[in-house]
Amino acid sequence: MSAGAVRVVIADDDADIRALVSIAVGKAGLDLVAAVADGDQAWLALQEHHPDLAVLDVSMPGMTGLELCRLIRADAALAGLHIVLLSAAVDDQARAAGFEAGADEFFLKPFSPREFAAWLSDFMVPEK
Fold it and tell me: Of 9, 31, 82, 106, which one's alpha carbon is 20 to 30 angstroms from that of 70?
């Protein structure tokens, strides 16, 4: 992780989930650079901001979170971007598909914003 604030892009078509993730990002001391409602807007935000972390809904209009994962992993300009997928799907097959697409982590909805913020704080601490 580079020095300075960790920049985050959130993409979820549910405004309440975007708000919860935004709160968690703030509690973790990270810098929210974009919060968008669909995959196409997310792709544009990722290309514009080159964030350190993307929090993506698996099922959203435009590109899905899985499609975005694959695009991100194929784009050298976004190398090193950490990807968290959010999904209401609870089966192992959905989780496996997320990791196969390139996600670093997978969270089930609903989730606790406090626990998510704690995970963000732990996950985004620079390795020694």
Answer: 31
Concatenate the DSSP letters of all residues of 23-87 into one string.
HHHHHTT-EEEEEESSHHHHHHHHHHH--SEEEEESS-SSS-HHHHHHHHHH-GGGTT-EEEEEE
Is 81 part of a structural domain of the chain? yes
| Beta partners for residue 26, in sequence order | none
- Does the residue 128 lie in any domain? no
For 108-125, the pLDDT digits (tens) are: 988 888 889 899 988 666
Q: How many domains does the chain have?
A: 1
pTM to 2 decimal places:
0.92
> Packing angle between helix 65-74 and helix 92-101, nearest 10 degrees?
30
Which parts of the chain register pLDDT below 50? 1-3, 128
* CA dist., res. 23 & res. 28, Å (int): 9
Place of tokens 């996950």: 123
End-to-end Cα distance, the chain: 11
